[in-house]
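During the reporting period the student researcher (J.K.) took over the structure-prediction task from the postdoctoral fellow and processed the backlog of single-chain submissions. One of the processed entries is reproduced below for the supervisory committee.
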Amino acid sequence: MKKNMGLIDRVIRILVAVVVVILYFTNVISGTLAIVLLILSGIFILTSIAGSCPLYIPLGFKTTKKNKE
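J.K. obtained the following structure tokens:
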């Protein structure tokens, strides 16, 4: 799978995921909302590590820098 996420996009996703985890463990969020946000946080972490977002593919969206060739 080609990388379609730039560095800033990946860092923002990881930061959002970390904030959600912190909110969960400090009991600021709970219940169904917490579970949904934790699942989304897991997806954010996985896509950030992989550098590719499956939703970007059908939309033709990329946040990577263009190569000058």
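The committee noted the following: Residues 7-54 form one domain.
J.K. will present the remaining backlog at the next meeting.
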